């Protein structure tokens, strides 16, 4: 029933929090899509007073919808919570995967 489900959710929340805190040493960065998963990770970091910057990707592609709405949600959330946000603009058609990997590796050095 409901109480069993609630116990399971608390168990997974505690496990997730422990895992995040083990990985977050010193200042770190998170990839923020504006979705529930990345917002949850952000809230765990904030609740534990861990300094971090958030990164989100703005992509433009005439064949696909752009993610401007998601980026605006991420901006609003970071503004409200005083979290530094870096928006990386990307043209999916002209952005080699290798360069994206290099850019992400550079952010891990923070």
Topology of this protein?
Elements (H helix, E strand, L loop, with lengths): L1 H22 L4 E4 L4 H12 L4 E9 L7 H14 L3 E7 L5 H12 L2
Which key terms come to mind for this protein?
55% helix, 3 strands, 110 residues, alpha/beta, three-stranded parallel beta sheet
Explain what this protein looks like in three dimensions:
- By secondary structure, the chain is α/β, with parallel strands linked by helices.
- Helices cover 55% and strands 18% of the residues.
- The chain has a three-stranded parallel β-sheet, with helices on one face.
- The longest helix is centred in the first third of the chain and has 22 residues.
Task: Put the structure in a nutshell.
The protein is built from 4 helices and 3 strands; from the N terminus they run αβαβαβα. It has helices at 2-23, 36-47, 68-81, 97-108, and strands at 28-31, 52-60, 85-91.
The helix/strand class is: alpha/beta
> What's the average pLDDT?
81
Query: What spatial order of strands do you see in the largest sheet?
Result: 1-2-3
**Biggest sheet, in brief?**
3 strands, parallel
Radius of gyration: 16 Å
Strand content: 15-25%
Number of helices: 4
Compute the number of strand runs: 3
Principal-axis shape = globular
Terminal Cα span: 45 Å
Order of helices and strands: HEHEHEH
Helix content: 40-55%
Show unreliable segments. Answer: none
């Amino acid at each position: 029933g409901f109480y069993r489900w609630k116990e399971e959710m608390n168990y997974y929340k505690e496990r997730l929090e422990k895992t995040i805190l083990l990985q977050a040493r010193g200042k770190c960065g998170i990839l923020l899509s504006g979705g529930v998963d990345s917002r949850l990770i952000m809230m765990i970091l904030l609740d534990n007073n861990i300094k971090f910057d958030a990164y989100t990707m703005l992509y433009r592609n005439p064949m696909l919808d752009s993610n401007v709405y998601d980026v605006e949600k991420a901006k609003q959330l970071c503004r409200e919570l005083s979290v530094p946000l870096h928006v990386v603009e990307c043209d999916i058609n002209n952005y080699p995967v290798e360069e994206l990997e290099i850019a992400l590796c550079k952010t891990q050095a923070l």
